[in-house]
């Protein structure tokens, strides 16, 4: 059934445990000087996973685990840009496109402020949006969760006419 809504909201979250000896990727951007990276079956990019889940949720299409199970051997080390690309395709097939996106990354270290523009640009490119429609916020956990990265994302999807 086709939705009558001109706009739909999507929400997504992701969290990964951090460990030494792994690279840290956020929004398709490698984070230099990160002492630890995400423990994950794929490349562990929690931003891209949360954005992909937000896209799917906006169209009530479930979540990325249904499309890319973390138990499937072929998904080992998977580039999360592939996951996001597929979710974007599903949104477009459903007659919508992202209009703007807002995300919060909770991570104690390293400081991400200097990379805000890089992450916004990367996400804008991946989503086909101007950078002015990509809001990127950072928070520490105030030491409550020093061993993990947490990402929360809202996305607005606009119906594509035609
Ligand atoms: O979490 P808190 O309010 O203490 O964050 C203070 C500032 O530190 C925020 O302005 C945020 O942008 C920045 N920050 C950062 N990198 C992080 C966490 C927070 O640049 N990993
Ligand atoms: Mg993940």
TrEMBL record:
Q: Where does 4-CDP-2-C-methyl-D-erythritol 2-phosphate bind?
A: 14-16, 41-42, 63-65
Q: Which reaction equation describes what this protein catalyses?
A: 4-CDP-2-C-methyl-D-erythritol 2-phosphate = 2-C-methyl-D-erythritol 2,4-cyclic diphosphate + CMP
Question: Where, in this chain's numbering, is a divalent metal cation bound?
Answer: 14, 16, 49
Name the Pfam families for this protein. Answer: YgbB
GO terms (molecular function) for this protein are: 2-C-methyl-D-erythritol 2,4-cyclodiphosphate synthase activity; metal ion binding
Domain 2-C-methyl-D-erythritol 2,4-cyclodiphosphate synthase residues, every copy: 8-155
Which PROSITE patterns does the UniProt entry name for this protein? Answer: ISPF
Name the top EC class.
lyase
Q: Which UniProt keywords apply?
A: Isoprene biosynthesis, Lyase, Metal-binding
Q: Which InterPro entries match?
A: MECDP_synthase (IPR003526), MECDP_synthase_CS (IPR020555), MECDP_synthase_sf (IPR036571)
Q: Indicate the annotated site residue(s) for Transition state stabilizer.
A: 41, 140
Q: Which Gene3D superfamilies match?
A: 2-C-methyl-D-erythritol 2,4-cyclodiphosphate synthase
Which SUPFAM superfamilies does the record match to this protein? IpsF-like (SSF69765)
Q: State whether it acts alone or in a complex, and with which partners, per the record.
A: Homotrimer.
Q: State the name under which the record lists this protein.
A: 2-C-methyl-D-erythritol 2,4-cyclodiphosphate synthase
